[in-house]
Amino acid sequence: DSDSRRVDPGPTPPAGIDDALTALRQIVGETNVLTDPDAMAGFLTDWTGRYRGAADAVVRPRTTDEVSRVVAECARSGVRICVQGGNTGLVGGSVPPARDGSTNALIVLSTVRMTDIGDVDTVGRCVGAQAGATVGAIDDRAGRSGLAFGIDLASRASATAGGVVSTNAGGTRMIRRGNARSQILGIEAVLADGSVLRRWTSLVKDNVGYDLPSLLAGSEGTLAVITRVLFTLVAPPAVATVAVAAVERVENAVELLGAASSAGLTVEAAELMTEAGVALVADHGHRRPTTAPGPFYVLVELSGTGDIESATTELLGATDGVIDAVLEPAPARALWAGREGHTEAIARSSSTPVVKLDISVPIRALPEAFAELSRVGVDDRFPCRPILFGHIGDGNIHVNLLDVPPEHATEVTESVFGIVTANGGSISAEHGIGRAKVAWTHLGRDATDLATMRTIKAALDPRGLLNPGVLFG
Ligand code: 2HG
Ligand code: ZN
Question: What domains can you pick out in the chain, each with its CATH number?
């Protein structure tokens, strides 16, 4: 982290960049190669302000052909490329590294102008979108045809198709629809030499060789630049209810999910919050979900046939530890806003850069792991404010540690990872590795696994020009 936080404006661009910039201007047009520091600033830092880097230019292509020519020019001139979509990631994967003395220049390739969305295929239930189309725009387009996008997340207005696929994002519908990888039918991407890889088929069964779209999903821009994605679409539930219950214990929330499935209800989403998080979000203008507070809160969105509201009320009545509950028909935006408002409220409330750890544990280990994680930093040598929340149905907890003295950030991270690995969990559930977690990939992958990833990286990007410093050290 400390590396990427160092700001180095790097006043002298490495030699040779001028020729490359002239060529890039010819490809994308003068106005789409930004070199003015003010114009570039927003592309060089993430929205939480925790990661900052330097670049010689920001290049904004419009089409796959332009991306292909930009990448070919970068390959010719040895210019490194940081690929950027909505820049909503939380692990520093979409901002360039700080200037590191490398002789190679670096551009940010922004997909901000690549926002086309094709016509919805209502029979094949799919839609093609350019990499820069937002999750919200794709869902709107699907909605006009009576369908929905299977990916949803708090940053839907900015997060992009290319970003969610390259990070294999999870989000709030993951429990029902799977992660981004499982929403892909086809992909188009530009390889490190500028050639275009295209696997574009609405066939749901196609076993001719390696599944390259699956490989690119989660590759964090290190293997290719994703330019277009063919997404599968889903039929939204006819009726759904959102309930938030204040509960005594994390176990009560886990039991509620099991009981919902046993009662024939479909769990569309399941989120866990704590009183500390709910109180903070309320301080930032959102309403409290229940009248009586609870140490914990569970938000569920349930669908099914028949009278879902009565079935949900009955379910809540039969669940142990429910202190208070509210119910609203979906989409229940205000209830969801109280959950989705966590990240922003947290970002605004910490006196030091927030230590954000996105971990998962097996569901059966969740109550115990949650309790252990809640104690990190509280009665330790370096007090901090933990706020934990997350996608409980996926065993995914977002451990946010506020007010951590920066010199203790690594130590506190390692205490969290110790608890996670002891419980058989993952150090990165849905946000990816980016720059933030590079030092710890060995906790999730064995030596052969990591070596195989490096072999693939070396085969597809032998000169290491794509997203340097992301995923690999
Ligand atoms: C969410 O679930 C996001 O809202 C962000 O994954 C999580 O801020 C976080 O830690
Ligand atoms: Zn999340």
Answer: 2-110 (3.30.43.10), 126-234 (3.30.465.10), 240-340 (3.30.70.2190), 350-433 (3.30.70.2740)
